């Protein structure tokens, strides 16, 4: 059997279209990542990713805990309610959440109702806005023509002598 001549493999570096650059130090990389993380919360509420929103909701829950002296159970219930509302899309709008992007914190969640029950536990609820039902507008031209035709028919029925 005849052997097929094989071409010598080119040097490994000659195939590369891009050249490796010197990598930065670990401190430079850490600075870059920290700078990106610091700027992430500076965006408006509706521009934050889900994970960043959850982080801000946890911080809001902790603020409410200290402000209202909530128990651990109540704090967990509040956080669970806020996470469920976020998943349902109730907290996606900037009108539902008042977020100060300069201070990087939630000031208010509209529709969040808290009341202490007779058993002494704080109850939380998010009120949903009722959406208005859309009404169809009547076509003015078609409505006027239909009214005129109805009037002509009624007049003809009332005066049978005029039509003969």
Question: What does this protein look like?
Answer:
The protein is of the alpha+beta class. It contains 5 helices and 4 strands. Helix 2 runs antiparallel to helix 3. It starts with 25 loop residues before the first helix and ends with a helix.
Secondary structure: elements and pairs:
Elements: H1 26-40, H2 50-68, H3 72-88, E1 97-100, E2 105-109, E3 112-116, E4 122-126, H4 140-158, H5 160-163
Antiparallel strand pairs: 1-2, 3-4
Helix pairs in contact: 2-3
List keywords for this structure.
164 residues; alpha+beta; two-stranded antiparallel sheet; two-stranded antiparallel ribbon
How helix-rich are the residues, as a percent range? 40-55%
Helix tally?
A: 5
Strand content: 5-15%
Overall number of strands: 4
Terminal Cα separation, in Å?
A: 112 Å
Q: Order the strands across the largest sheet as they lie in space.
A: 1-2
Radius of gyration (Å): 34 Å
Strand count, sense and barrel status of the largest sheet are: 2 strands, antiparallel
- SSE string, helices as H and strands as E: HHHEEEEHH
- The secondary structure category is alpha+beta
Mean pLDDT: 78
Low-confidence stretches: none
**Judging from the principal axes of the Cα atoms, what is the shape?**
flat
Short description:
With 164 residues, the chain is of the alpha+beta class. The protein has helices spanning 26-40, 50-68, 72-88, 140-158, 160-163, and strands at 97-100, 105-109, 112-116, 122-126.
